[in-house]
Structures are given as structure tokens and as C-alpha cells.
Amino acid sequence: MARMGVKGRCVVSGVIRLEKLSTIYLPYSYEPLKYEYNRDVAEQSSYHAKSKALFTVGNDLIHSIDISNPYSPTVTHYTRVAGGELTDVEVCDDKLAVTWDNKVDPIDGKVFVYDIAKTGDLALSVEVTVGAVPDMLQWTPDCKRLVVAVEGEMRVINGQFVDPEGSIAVVRIDGGQYELKRANFSKFNDLADYYVSKGVRWVYRKNGSTFAQDLEPEYIALNKDGKTAYISLQENNAVAVMDVEKAEILELYGLGSKSWSNLSISLDGSNHLSDLPLHSLYQPDTIKYFEFEGKEYILTANEGEEKEYEKLNFTDGVSIAELIEKNAINDELRERLNDDERIGRLRVSSIDGLDENGLHETLHAYGARSYSIRRASDLSLIYDSGDDIEKNIHKHIPYVLGSNGKDIDKTPEGAAGSRSAKKGPETENVDVGRAFKKTLLFVANERPGVILIYSFDRQLASNFESIHYAGGQGRSWLNLYENRATADVDPEDIKFIPEEQSPHSKPMLIVSGTTSGTVSCYQVVDDLPEEKREFAPTPSVYFPHLEDSSTD
Fold it and tell me: Which domain of life is it from (predicted)?
């Protein structure tokens, strides 16, 4: 059943759905106060249950938001960290940690740790230089260590191209003191050919760039005791496993590719093409660890990503039409393409799926347009959502399928299909939790901000519950923003808050819309009356990222 509300908001509900409580628009400057669309002011958020405060970072600001009344959130304080860009924030106990990409000295990215035990401005307790482009961090469950993904992206420094190795920083915090360890990938250089044969992509090989330099950590998931870290290497289509206490990378696992045979894919925002001779690389952004019925799993949001170095005029991506024009596809594959111009627009990898003559025998697009579940032991695939995400968007909210919220002068429906030939919905973030005696999965898609809810049964089979879109329609993205009629555009971060930690004792989802510059509070609602719910026996399930020590 589709429910159209005011200002173009749409919720298509099954049983479990999102009900809006509030949306707050954040400024990119407080002195003077300035707001603007697409300024990346709401990149990531973290919740402190004890104080019922939400901390949101974006650009160079930390926003402290009181959500004790989630119907009326209020910014109480802000902290500016000049000279760089804040990329992540995580709270543990009464400590708040942020990662900071240093724009002045790019090699010297930092982590800042603040004391939030008292109200008022954040009190800086620790400052640690961790390396080039720290992109994401996690606290271990005891709140004593930070595990930081240091991406090591290529940068231009004093007119020279510098490509640092990606690494993982492990920072032990003790009061105002710290101990820093680093885990790098240099030991894998001598084994590069082996790991490439196992599906770990080595994308950029020019200018003497090594395998270790090409491996770029994107996201970290920690297991139950915080001793093992799983690290997404997005462009490399791989996950690394690390011993946290030793700060040592143990293994790399290639994630393989997904065949679109017997599945449908949208390449123009409308009709779905079926049974194409096409594969795609999973390339997850967000990954989450969880336990279910005593077994360990990794949940992945398969966004996809080209590696691009604009100032070097390098990308590993190319359109299929360009490959055809350059005669870079073998005869058998060319015949199977049937000269469909829609598939010609699709961006694919220029380095994957080559035969012995260097011609493409298989085409690999970026991102699986799905979420997946993998065994934590060896990262083997046990479930993928196939084409379900695009099918549900096409069925319930077709006017935004493949739309791009950064086409600011276009309407959401006018921009539909503009991203379909690239990475489609760009499934970017996932979160999991328990509510109404169900295990729930929330799936956030960047283009342009659609959230789907699923529930799991005891066999980890997923059931579609509902779909949510708050981006608006009928006016340009910019006009919608100026009239406060859009939200959740590019949801880089979603956070489930269980009822026992919630500010109003009901399960919630917090959505940070990076492009719209918004933070939205939603209540997770079960439309089915309690007396009609059929509860299965509660499975044994554990989500370490939902364990909150700030309530102690």
C-alpha cells in the first residue's frame, strides 16, 4: 500500500515501516549562520544514549544535537576543526572520537578524542596523527582501543603525486595518553600475483605503484570481543582480516563477481533488461559483523566504486560503447550484446574479464546493486539480494529510480535514470537490529535516498517489509531544499537505536543525508496489531555495534 504524504514524501508499507518524527537541517557555517544544499554537512552520526545526544560530523564541523525529544531535535553546541574534513564519528562510554582528513598536510590525517561526560563544548583529550586520509573508525567493545581505516588515497603534495600505502591504525587510549600501532599491507607485495588470481583487484599499476599502495581500506567491522577486524577494500573488491591486538593483517579475500543471468537490471531508469551477458563486482562500502544462531556473518552494502585519479587523467572505468568502438570485446561476447544502445552506456571495468588476447570475454560493472551476507570465516557468499532493490524501487517509487540528488537544477523525476548506467541505486549503508520480535535489516541507497526494510527468518532468508523515500518530487532538488521539503538525500549513514537505548523508549532509525544536509529521526513502526502478530521463537542474535556502554 502506497502512502503519499505532504511535500512529496512517500512510504510504501508492508508491516514494518518508518514513521517520521523530525528532520533537522544543519548549517555549513555557524559564524555567520549559513545553509546550503550539497555541502556535505551531515556525513556520519553517532548516538550517546546516556545524554540522549547525537553527534554528527560533516565538512569541518561537529554538531552536538539534543534528541531527548526526537520530535524536536536541537543543536546545543558545535565544534569546528579547521584545515580539514571530518570523515567519521563514534561514541563509546563518555568518549567521542572523530577522524579528520588533513587538507593542509595530507599525509598527516588525525584522530581526535573528546570527553563528553560533561555538558558544554567538547573537551579534547587525545590527538593522534594516523596517516593519509583516515576515513572510518570503530571502538572496541571495552572502549579502550580505536581501530581506524587509513585509506591512503593518492594526493598531490607540493606539485608531486604521492600515493601512501593504506593502513589500519590501532590506538590504545588511556586517559589523555595513547599508544599507536599500525598494520600495513606491505607483506602482500611479494604475493600480489597470488592474491590477484584469487580476485583481489590491483587497479593502478603506473608510476611504480605497488600492490600495497593500491589497497585502500574503506570500512571496518569488529567481531564480538573486538579482537578481529574485517576491513572492506572497496575498489579492490576484497575484505581484509586483521588481528587487532597484534595490529597485523592476517589475510585478504577477493569477493568475486555477480552474474546478472536470470536477473534484471535497469540501465536507463525505466525498463529492466534481463539475462544480459554481464557481471558486476560486489565492492562493498559499509560492512557489519553479526552473529545469528551461533554463527558469525558479515553483512555488506554493495555500492561499487571506480578508482579515479582526476589529476592523472586515470580511471579503470569505461563505457561498453567505448570498448565496442575500440574493438576491445571478443566476437562471442559482441554477438551476445545485440547492439542494445542502453547497455552501451553502462560503465564497466577496463581491467577485469580479459581473455588471453587481452579482449573482454566478460563485462564487469561496478557494484552489485544489492546487499549480501557472507560467512565471517572465509567471506564465502551465502546470500545476495539479487535484483530486489531495483525491482522494489521500480515497483513502488519508479519516478526516482536511478535519480541523482546532485543534479540540483533538475526535479527528482527529471533526474531519474541519470545514474542507472553507472552504479544504479548505489547501495551504500546497512544496519541491523531487533524490534517486534523480528531481526530487521535497513538498507540505504545513495541514489537518491531510498531506504528499504527487510526482516530475517531463522534461516536468514529475508522478507521485504517496506520502502521509504523522503526526497520529494515536482520541484528541483535545490527548490525542495530551500523550502525544507527534502531529506535523506545520499544517506551516507544510518543508525538503528533499539528501544532500550531510545530517547522515547521506542525503536528508531537515524538517517544522515549528506547531500541534503539533514539528520532525520524515524520511529520504527509495526503496522500489524500486537494481538495479530505471530512470533516465532526468538533466535540467538548478536550485533556488537549496538552494544552501548554509555548507558552504564
Answer: Eukaryota
